[in-house]
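Hi team,

As requested, here is the filled-out complex form for the zinc ion run. I kept the field names the same as last time so the parser does not choke. Let me know if anything looks off before we queue the next batch.

— J.
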Amino acid sequence: MERYEPSVIEPKWQKRWDEARAFAVPEPTGDPFYLLVMLPYPSGRIHMGHVRNYALGDVFARQLRMAGKTVLHPMGWDAFGMPAENAAIANKRHPRDWTDENIAQMKRQLKRLGLSYDWDREIKTCDPSYYKHEQEMFLKMLEKGIAYRKHALANWCESCQTVLANEQVEDGKCWRCGHDVTQREMEQWFLRTTQYAAELLDGIRSLEGKWPDKIVKRQVHHFGRSEGAEIHFPLDEPVDNGREREIVVFTTRPDTLFGVTFMSIAAEHPLALKLAQGTDREKEVAEFIQRIRMEHKVSRGAADTAKEGVFTGRWAIHPFTGAKIPIWIANFVLMDYGTGAVMAVPAHDQRDFEFAKKHGLPIRVVIRPADGPPADPSTMTAAFSEPGVMVNGGSFDGTANMDGIAAVSAELKKTGKGGPAVSYRLRDWLVSRQRYWGAPIPVVHCGACGVVPVPRAELPVELPMDVEIRGAGGSPLERHPTFSKRPCPKCGGDARRETDTFDTFIESSWYLHRYTTPRYEQGPVEPTAARAWLPIDLYIGGEEHAVGHLVYCRFWHKAMIDLGYLPPDTPREPATELLAQGMVCHEIYFRTDPQNPAHKSYFYPEETELRDGKRVLKKDGKPVRVGPVIKMSKSKQNLVDPDDIVRRYGADTARLFVLFAAPPEGQVDWNEAGVEGMSRFLLRVFRLVRDHRAALVDTAPYTGGPLDDRALELRRRTHRTIAKVTHDVAERRQPNTAIAAMMELVNALVGYDAGTDARRRAVLRESVDCLLKLLSPFAPHLCDELFEQLGGKGLLLAAPWPGVDQTAIEEATVEIPIQINGKVRGRVVVPREATEQVVLEAARREENVAAHLEGRSVSKTLYRPGKILTLVVS
Ligand code: ANZ
Ligand code: ZN
Ligand code: ZN
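And here is what came back:
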């Protein structure tokens, strides 16, 4: 083969790998390693973000295999979800057909990249054989109280026509479509993630250093642990026919209890309306509640939002002083947090201060600065929230307020009025969706029996395919003629099948488990094999999943252990190490419309070219404007199509470029020059082998014997490179610097002249073999090809990862003749950097030299470094 032709080499090797079943993963024997990349949503075509994600995974997977690990490296499809449904509406295609076609297409694309997946383990989450197990796990969660149904205010996206989990609302907007999210009161299904709040928090802390800091921090913040106290305030008179007798608050500042002058509860608090019932405030309160509920949670909670409120007409009793405390409803109190009720301390909490000022409520100072008198409530302009000393607090007076927190909590506990408490910001996971393309929730609603689980024998509850998808809102399942009609499994009476489907984040919460035994039928996983593979040793994916998927799968994993699907000794975190890869970006090219300067039209990079240093549009030759380098996206058209790059440069170049352009966490700026650079590098490797082929084919790699300087130097280079590449890939996870090291080795190889000397040739062969092995996880097609051309047998994936010869690196040795009084009496092998002293000591140990020195003294030494040691003795 004379020319480097990826379009010939790459399909050839992909076929060979397939035929050899080179990527099939055996059972978890030997030294198992589970390497997982996040599974893609089958949106249609793969994009450069995928290429980057999967190239990273593939480098590690291949290297680990060669290093002797049994590597599980699977791939599958997160196949349920809204885009399929939207596409179905837009194109009148069934979501199933749309999804299947996309999967076929994307699978072809992934194969073209030469990724080492065991396709036998492929998973498609919309497959009933997959979601069947998820339905079964849900029923178990229902039995154990982890799944429950409740009437609650839920985040509603009008555009998606469905409710959303808290994690799926970003700055008050829908995570998928960006539409404003409003609140709707509905019966919904939840999973009790809050039951695991403490463990999720401790667990993420234990991953510090192994998961990216950014993600650890975001999760810690997401769980939002606060320490404080719960305090019971009895109502002045019970409401709701005597059923409701108290309000419980959560506070981080029990030390301010004596400063409580009113109470604020959320508009959604179950007592909000009940309190006002029977008072003259009823109408006003009802209106206020109605109005506030419509507002966004985010803006209600913001510090600068006007503090609105209404008095309920009722009072609570202060647990220590017995004072009557008016109960208000306030917009800034959210039902989502704590108990949805706040003991208001205007003197020491800014929001309460503003509220009190606005509504004419009293202010009572109970903390004074450590070195001064308490503030005067009538002249205060802001709450005093610094640490200080307790005043106006009865027996607590004089206590430092930080100590007061514990002291008041203890007193509350002793008197049965509350006590220390911890509160989390994390909410239970809302998992029902009013959408079609998802896994059906396996329950039946019966007028007589309530919620009844579908009998296990009837699982899976299959999603019917014969539906009409109109997009007019409402679930297509609800309109299905027969799906929802199902007799009650308990009493046999008429009942209604649940028509909501699961949040698709449920499927992606346990695909990681399913891959370990993907065809097992008796349960979600076969416990022994799953236990042997889990936890994931290295998980790779995008950081956008920080508080979504990466929280859900941690929760689900713990629940699977607790529900008995995984052995009890399974480690409680599902992924030991996480690599969150950065974005792939590109410049944008655009023109503004002279008529309407606000309107920009964007161009794909391939529609443009550089002419005399200017970026122009190919079709009219006129300049376009060049914008900043930003994340590749359809809307800005700054995309390059992986297929196009593979066609023009080959998959090996594409892989190498995304790996070389930045460390995994960094941002890759796509640029054609960089891609060409990678292509040239591979061409150099190709030529190197081609040009030395004759000398190398029949030469075995060096195994030992004296070498000259040039050969020693190449060996040192080679083994340093092995050490660096191994360290960069296996320890530091920085393929970019590994590539740079291999480039240097190639430079050295190009400059090396093996001549006809057999040992020099053997060293060249050793070095080239090592280079091909080191480079094969990055550019697997070319390396297998060149290895074969040199007469190598088998696939490099099956070859052992090269080991480092420490002596070659550190003590590249030289042989020094020892001359005594003009005659060479012996030779010693010493490090080439050895000092005269070291050489002399080695010489004295050499038998023959020692014999000649016996009983005589050395009067003069002369060392010519690396060449000869001359001794004059008498
Ligand atoms: C009395 C008090 C006095 C408070 C004081 C603070 C300062 P973090 O730190 O975020 O956990 N709070 C409790 N539940 C609330 C809710 N549902 N909506 C709005 N605010 C709520 O905040 C805990 C504090 O936030 C609690 O402590 C409570 O106000 C308020 F000088 O109680 B504090
Ligand atoms: Zn939406
Ligand atoms: Zn029934």
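Two things worth flagging: The chain has 26 helices and 36 strands. Residues 446, 448-449, 452, 488, 490-491, 493, 495 surround zinc ion (ligand 3) (CB under 6 Å).

Thanks,
J.
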